[in-house]
Specification:
rod-shaped, 5 helices, 105 residues
Length: 105
Amino acid sequence: MVAPRSSLAEQAVASLHSAGDDQEALEEAIQAAAFLDAIPGDDRQKLRAARFRLRKIKEAAAKGVASADRSPHIKAEYNPAEFDVLTSVDQGQQVPRYEKLSWRM
């Protein structure tokens, strides 16, 4: 026999669903539904799923911030041949190319 769900548990699960992907609303709903951890069943699994969804939202937000902070000149891979081109001496000059680059700080 399945135990009847309390109205408090139903409200907590409803608030978890209504929070959607809104980070602040989801955090508040998870805090309000924390009592479901002590009650085994589907409601506890829905709370765990909401925590997982919040973790994924935070990871996506952190990834977006990290990529915005990166320089547009950073490459995923560097070719060793590019170093040889920059350090080679120009025709008729004794100065390597990298010394002629204009560096800005």
